[in-house]
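Entry 14. Ran structure prediction on the chain below.
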Amino acid sequence: MVTRLEIAGRPDLRDPRGAHAAGRIRNFLGIPVEQVRTRDVYRLEADLHDGEAEKVLEEFTDPVLHRGGLGRVEADRFDFAVSVAFKPGVTDPVGKSAMVAVQDTLGRLLTLAGGEEPAVYSSTLYLLTGVTRDQAETIGTSLLANPVIQTITIRSWDEWSSSDPDMTVPRVPAQHRPEVQRYDLSGSDDELLAISRKGLLSLSIQEMHAIRDHFLAAGNDPARTGLGLDHRPTDVELECLAQTWSEHCKHKIFNATVTYHEDGKEPETIKSLFKTWIMGATKDIGAPWLVSVFHDNAGVVTFDEQIHLVYKVETHNSPSALDPYGGAITGIVGVNRDPFGTGLGAHLLANVWGYCFGSPFHEGDLPKGLLHPRRVRDGVHQGVIDGGNQSGIPYGRGWEVFDHRYLGKPLVFCGTVGALPVTIAGGPGEEKAALPGDRIVMTGGRIGADGIHGATFSSAALDESAPVQAVQIGDPITQKRMFDFLLVARERGLYNAITDNGAGGLSSSVGEMAEQSGGARLDLSQAPLKYAGLSTWEILLSEAQERMTLAVSPKKIDEFLELAR
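Output, structure tokens:
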């Protein structure tokens, strides 16, 4: 059962969001739109009792500012309606918050017949006056929506007024029964590279050879044959290796051996630029205020006798080029995880940022698949602000640089500073260790198809074929709730180690902690999912900003889970 709520501004009041959109349309696209009015739409896919839809509508509608309706709110004549909604499988933070609000309003959990998960889906409706259909399509695809992660529906006044309200929902269809695939790597180099490209693995031919040779040698190992495995790696194994070996995670260029030639001088061999000039310099200086560097999620330095400062800055370039707002909010919310996953967890204090963009006044043609730099800049800036504010982390300081050379790929730096107690639960706050026998616990948001291949995608060249799954939409509210819970668990000493579900998801987080414990057994069937139909490798690799992985002692697992409830 689908119930549609539509919330419109009162016609006698100014629509600030619509006026802002109209200004951007005129300034960025040169289209002389006369007016833009906006509406919020919520589709509730749940079984509601008599009178409950009206109760929710009343709660969602401010009578001073809004008019609300079940199905549709009548409108004065316009030319075209542009509806913008998230594609199936893309995180809808507004919809998730609306779901909580609906359940709070009704005082019960929502249900859906057939055992399906109930959901609330949000969308925005733009009513445009003074444009043609071609102009409305340009406005929708170039400004109001990002086709990589959003759907766009355009209707004329006649089409809109003569049709029933749109009741469709972007539920992910369970189109296949997940099956583990096996890859035959005995083919030619061209065939191996085709496997890498098709799977978005970003593996070189040398890496494909190494994987092939390893599995050929291990094909008759009783440990594999006893599980029904052979010389062919499964999709889970191949995807896990691609994530672990990605440039994004492994920094192969910085860690490579480089032979440097200059002006006829003797060649110089540098064994890792990073270890020589960054780690090496830091070690040589040996500053006494360094507490923890280069081995955890962020750096730790001394502040006073009670707390250490934790600092981390990272880039989020490719995702911000695809979806400026979503990429940036994901960047800032994502870097929040790193200080929180450093040591036993730092309290987050402030966010910092830095941007490098093409000229916001660019008037020439753009390569296929690229957004206008002004749109990129505005979306990124708003995403960084929202990501911090919605998580309760103040927006600090930053900088911006504009140059035409950043037209093809912007640089987006996001950072967070936190405070880590010197002592936590009787031990050093910067120390953690996953121990043999510890339980693997994932906390935060559920696993979905978004955030898959983020590591390998970020390691490849950016082009118009970039996958929708590589783009995450950060969920700052869920992350805030998770952080508040984990700070209490930290003070009670309920876990031994913590790290984030960053690029590579469970593959990365569990893999890192398993180095300390000597291995891990991971039961992916226990992972909470957003919807059915995910393949095993997708469950393993899906990244989310609002998820963390912890190592919890079996003696404390019951107390930890009780606190989580």
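The longest helix spans residues 373-391. Will compare against last week's run tomorrow.
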